[in-house]
Amino acid sequence: MIRYTQDRTVVLGYVPVRRDMFPSRPASELKSRVKARFDEMAEKCGDVELVTIDDTVEGGMLWDLRDADRVVELFRAKKVDAIAFPHCNFGQEEVVAKVAAEIGKPVLLWGPRDPSPETDKSGKTGPRDFDTQCGMFATSRALKRYHVPYTYIENCWLDSPVLDQGFDDFIRVVSVVKAFRGMRIAQIGSRPRQFLSVKVNESELLSKFGIEIVPIWPEEVKRMIEKLKRGLPPSPEGCELPMGQPPLPPLKGLLPDPRIASVAAEIESSVDWSAVGHGAVETMAYLEVAIMDLAKIHQCQAAAVDCWGFSQDAYGIPSCFVLGELFDRGLPAACETDIHAAIGAVLLQAASRYSSPAFIADVTIRHPEDDNAELLWHCGPFAKSLVKKGVIPAVKECKGMYEIEGGPLTVVRFDQDDGNYLLLADEGEGTEGPKTTGNYVWFKVNDWVKWEKKLMYGPYIHHVSGIHGHFAKVLKEACKYLGPVTHDSVEPVEEM
């Protein structure tokens, strides 16, 4: 499948710490075992790169304040996304706090449980070599004094599954933070006039979070499609401005971009397209590739599209199924120019470590028989890979017509009121319900009335972003690092 590729690697600064007043040999021996464990966990997570301080600090463990600046310089040069500070004995809270404060990225604090204190033949207890937990209490206080948020994995044995789960969760948190900071969203067309609910404060998104909205005129999409028809390279020349550009070369002697035939073949091999015909499939393929190329040119991580107007007017088809296709190819694409929904979808896919496409749905009607279930629906923009087992995905009027899989679902809404930004993140389960048109899943929770009132009193709307899996606690933890974003939920979400 043709994919929209983005950098998803998490670069993790790895800083073992020790206290110089404790014996150095036990700490050094423990350091080697801890490093092997972190290498194993990083490989298991995938797309995780460890940046060590072995060539920067003698002995590869930080304790001397004089080495802190060199570590900071190294991590800035390597553009680390987070820092882990495994304690190999009591540790040194001052250097941890100073390095963490300078880098300003998510921090992982952990240390292994101490062995049993040794006794000599007379039964007297000797000096302890580590006191790791004690030192982490000191480090956490130092981080608080420097106003550095951090994530903590409980003091557990080196081979404990608690460490595996905690590390995996932390990498997901870092993935969310990395996706959020500096996000660029391609806005293709204006919001539908009646949709006051999807208004955003573009200036605030940029000044508070570094999230930039990149306007792309529908005419740019049209000109990109013309270039694809001529097999011309996907450069901004000839696309960026709708007026004053030289005409594109004539078609004679030029062949269409080969990706178009490939995308059309992928669609026709995976869905029932008999109701639309090959011509419509080919038009959808041109739209998909053109939007991906423009997003790549403008370095965007998502798109928000005027699905009501531009494609219907210019190409005679709705863009619904195209948006689902973009999700499947790795580019979240919100309908109805909903910028906040696009942000929520990006965060969900990052939390999942890009294992599944998200979807954007209307919160529509209550289940006719189950008081705690609700219809998450839209007219046809859900990724075809999410189709429910046993269901043949069909496309009618260029809209997806199929139910998607149930199972665990995480649902979010990123929104704001008077400059106060919230991330509503909670979970439920897909359940059985009546059939309907478009794309949909029936969503069951413990107490739907609580959800309904939460959405009604807001500052939320009828759009949510969803994904398969349990990620509410990851998103709650990520809010520590997202700046002025408050976590919100219907039911209490467990701590990491």
Strand content: 15-25%
Number of strands: 18
Total helical segments:
14
* Low-pLDDT segments: none
Distance between the termini: 35 Å
Helix content: 25-40%
Oligomer: single chain
What is the overall silhouette?
globular
The rounded Rg comes to 26 Å
Main sheet summary: 6 strands, antiparallel, barrel
Sequence of strands across the biggest β-sheet: 10-11-16-15-14-17
Q: On the 0-100 scale, what is the average pLDDT? A: 94
Supply the helix-strand structural class: alpha/beta
Blueprint (SSEs and pairs):
Layout: E1 10-14, H1 24-45, E2 48-52, H2 68-78, E3 82-86, H3 93-103, E4 107-110, H4 132-145, E5 151-152, H5 161-180, E6 184-188, H6 202-209, E7 212-216, H7 218-229, H8 258-270, H9 278-297, E8 302-305, H10 310-315, H11 320-328, E9 333-334, H12 339-351, E10 359-366, E11 373-378, E12 394-396, E13 399-403, E14 407-417, E15 420-431, E16 439-444, H13 448-457, E17 463-468, H14 472-478, E18 485-488
Parallel strand pairs: 1-2, 1-3, 3-4, 4-5, 6-7, 6-8, 8-9, 13-16, 15-18
Antiparallel strand pairs: 10-11, 10-17, 11-16, 12-13, 14-15, 14-17, 15-16
